[in-house]
Amino acid sequence: MERTTGTALPSPRPPRATATPPEAPVRATAPVAGSRTDEEITGYERSPSDVLRTVAFAVLALLLVAVTRWSRDEFTALDEDLVQRLSFLTPTVGRILAGAVALLVLASIVGAWATPLVTRRSRLLGHLLVSGVLAVLLLLLGADWFVERGDADALVREVGRRGGVDSTLTVDGLAVMAASFVVLAPFVSRRWRRAGALLLALVTLLRLLVPIAHPGTLAVALVLGALAGSATLLLLGRPSRRPTLGAVAAALTGSGLHPADLAPAVVDARGSVPCVATLAGGDRVFAKVMGADNRAADLLFRAYRFLRLKDVGDERPFSSLRRTVEHEALVSLLVRDAGARTPRLRAIAPVGSDSFLLSYDLIDGTTLDKLSDDAVPPAVLSGIWEQVAVLRRHSVAHRDLRRANILLDRTGSPWLIDFGFSEVAASPALLDADVAQLLVALALDVGVDPAVDAAVDRLGPEAVAAALPRLQPNSLSGATREALKHRKDLVPQIRAAVCRRSGVPEPRLADLGRIHLKTVLTVIMLAAATYLLAPQLGDVGGMVARVRDADWVWLPWILAMSALTYAGATLSIVGAVPARLRLLTTVVAQFASSFASKLAPAGLGGAALNVRYLQRSGVDLPVATSGVGLSYAAGSVVHVVLMVVFAVWAGRSAFGSLRLPHPQAVLWGVSVVLALAAAALAVPAVRRLVVGRGVPLVRRSVEGIGSAVRRPGKLAQLLGGAAVVTLGYLLCLYLSTRAFGGGLDLATVGAVYLAGAALAAVAPTPGGLGALEAALIAGLVAAGMDHTVAVPAVFLHRLATFWLPILPGWAAFAWLRRSDYV
């Protein structure tokens, strides 16, 4: 059991406020000047500092392991150089240095593990055991298995012969030593922590003098040991050191405030330690103590918001806890001088070794989150918005206007508290976010119309309307979002009320999310596509060698034919819909469509993108869907017609090995489909769905198709564009065969391409990857082309039509999204 003395402050409830009175304080008489200012261990807790350190060490360990694994030869060369430079060391000197390293590591571990016995902290011994085992396991996985992979190392054997020491023992001991020092850090004074750091530095220096393991392995051991120590503290908890009442009283006394009585305060203090002091003259002050955990929690919170959100006004984190405290004090003074009601700052003082105290005048009142709805009349609402107006006039964004940060005193006057997250010289977007936050926070209590009416009356309709793009959950504090879980319709109601009172249409919401579901799906699809495409690039060297033998005179024509297919796709999509489309934008959309088609099989990605593009261009959704379907249908019809033409042109030899399905099998398949459709229509619910929703959509689609087909120009664009696409790919393959000296004529190559593309269309891979290459190579070889020509010709064709368009297609896709065309 831990030995403690004195009275310590209890663990606070998260989050953060300033001047609010205690609900039920536990009174304790605080010592005056001369009291001890120590911090005491009052229990164990999982600290944000350990979360931050564990994440940082984990990231650093992953980077070091990867770099060490991939740069092992360079590290070996470094060790060889060290061995040569230290060749003047005699075996005796080398053995002494190596022994010194081993003894230092062993003595350090023994000293660290003896600490629990001396201090009688049995729980600390458990922490050390867990960290040591975890360090060895991590080292086995990270260094021995992944970095060195168990390979024998002549260099290590040579140095071991010189030094007479086992390198494995030294590396493992170094990891355990680092883990033990990290675990001991919160239990010992700063002086002992510095001594431990110097000892680690000394062992590392001696290690460089006697290179008994790879330098990369040494770095990995140190970081993995630190990771094991911080993970142990996170898992089992670190000592909870809270400033004693005596330390807080001494800090207040040192600032000129002499407390006669001091009591902890149970308030919403967001991680800080709050208390209330009665001074010798009778005044009462509210003090909150912020320590290293507050700093770590702030860094984690900012990192989370940076990864999840954008354009929310988060500036760079402050360089230290002192700067964080000074910023809150600065904003409080600025706001009070500007005329807003906020408690007067009385003192800033250090508390203990790494904490700071902020003291304010105590305001006798209650925060909004603890009041009933009828306790906030219209006059109070107007007063709250007047305080926000003062902040806006001086470009101060509070950025945390939740109900817990609005205090009503005994006369009903509102006060704004807790400026720890605020910004001065704030941008209009941050000021609008304040309005959005407060609208939602007040509407939760008093309703939508009273909150909106009061805001419009005090700020004006323009200022309130400017907050509309920020009226969304991503702009709100965590406490407000939590309260909205049972009022999901509240924010849309507020937006509608603001539009009605301000006389403006509802604008588009600001895009505050950095990571969207579409982005995640795109990354997943790209990863899946890369996994499928990677095997095709297995013989990159051989493919490059074959391409170098090509006649590069044909290359510009090959690329021109590939580019021609996008012009054909543009003509086809323009002819498939009755509306007029922007030609240049439609061309860009076809490049983006080719990129999207590589993310899903059967061209589903490209079709979806084209539908979205047409819809954003003003085409009705059913017409857009039918238009894209009509374009694909026209392409299929043209493909079949050209297949027949080239088959007749090339003669029977080109299709001698192909067999069409038996007509009876086709008839049975059609019969099964018709029977299933009839059975579905026999269900009344299905019939109502088809008649109510399906028939109107089909009717509108048919009207769109009819209007396009009835116009000769549109029909010519539709069919002509489809023919250009197919012929462009066909000519690209033919020119690729000519580049490698292929002797087949255009008719035969065309027939092979059309047949192979038809077979590859049913492949479940993006763009028929793998299937099309196999079909084309097999077809060309069967038609009489030598395989040494067919293989590089097909790969050159795919390079021009599949691989090279990926980068411009991605750029086109990004531009369409950025320009709001999809």
UniProtKB/TrEMBL annotation:
Topology class, membrane: Multi-pass membrane protein
Keyword Cell inner membrane: no
Pfam family, one: LPG_synthase_TM
Highest taxon in the source lineage: Bacteria
InterPro entries cross-referenced by the UniProt entry: Kinase-like_dom_sf (IPR011009), L-PG_synthase/AglD (IPR022791)
Annotated organism of origin: Geodermatophilus obscurus
Region of interest (Disordered), ranges: 1-43
Record bears the keyword Oxidoreductase: no
Transmembrane segments: 51-72, 92-113, 125-147, 167-188, 195-212, 218-236, 515-534, 554-576, 629-653, 665-686, 715-736, 795-816
Compartment annotation: Cell membrane
Gene Ontology annotations for the cellular component aspect, listed alphabetically: plasma membrane
Entry keyword set: Cell membrane, Membrane, Transmembrane, Transmembrane helix
PANTHER family (alphabetical): UPF0104 MEMBRANE PROTEIN MJ1595
Composition-biased stretches (Low complexity): 16-33
Protein name: Undecaprenyl-diphosphatase
Taxonomic lineage of the native organism: Bacteria, Bacillati, Actinomycetota, Actinomycetes, Geodermatophilales
